[in-house]
Design brief:
Layout lengths: L1 E7 L2 E7 L4 H15 L15 E3 L4 E6 L6 E2 L4 E7 L2 E6 L4 E2 L2 E2 L6 E2 L4 E4 L1
Antiparallel strand pairs: 1-2, 3-11, 4-6, 4-10, 5-8, 6-7, 9-11
Length: 118
C-alpha cells in the first residue's frame, strides 16, 4: 500500500492506495456488477467505450445526475457521493455516452464499486 498526501482547499489528507493485480480487479468488478445489476435504471446502451466510473470511497449516493443514453463530456457531473459528511462530485473521466447505471439514489456503496459505465 502506498500513502499519498492530498491537499483539498488548504487541508491536507493522507490516503492509502492499494495496488491490485488485473485478476483481482476483474473479480471485484464482476462482483460489483453482479450485486448491483438489479438496481440498474435501464438496459445498457450499445456503443459505449466501456470506461467504468467507480466510487473512490465508501459512501451514500445522494444524486445521480445522468440517465442511460446521455452524452457526457469529460469533467461533467455524473453523481454525488456523500462520504464522511462531505459531498463528493463524481465526474466523467472522458467524453462518452452513459451505457449503464449500476446504482440507485440513496444506495450505500463500497470503495471501488462500479457506479456508471460509459
Amino acid at each position: 500500500m502506498k500513502t499519498y498526501e492530498i491537499n483539498v482547499n488548504g487541508k491536507v489528507y493522507q490516503v492509502g492506495v492499494k495496488e491490485i493485480d488485473e485478476a483481482t480487479y476483474k473479480n471485484h468488478t464482476q462482483q460489483a456488477e453482479t450485486v448491483s445489476a438489479p438496481a440498474a435504471t435501464a438496459a445498457p446502451v450499445t456503443g459505449g467505450s466501456g470506461a467504468t466510473v467507480s466510487a473512490p470511497m465508501p459512501g451514500v449516493l445522494l444524486k445521480i445526475a445522468v440517465n442511460v443514453g446521455d452524452q457526457v463530456k469529460a469533467g461533467q457531473l455524473l453523481c454525488l457521493l456523500e462520504a464522511m459528511k462531505m459531498e463528493n462530485e463524481i465526474v466523467a473521466p472522458e467524453d462518452g455516452v452513459v451505457s449503464a447505471i449500476h446504482v440507485k439514489q440513496g444506495e450505500q456503496v463500497e470503495a471501488g464499486a462500479v457506479l456508471i459505465t460509459l
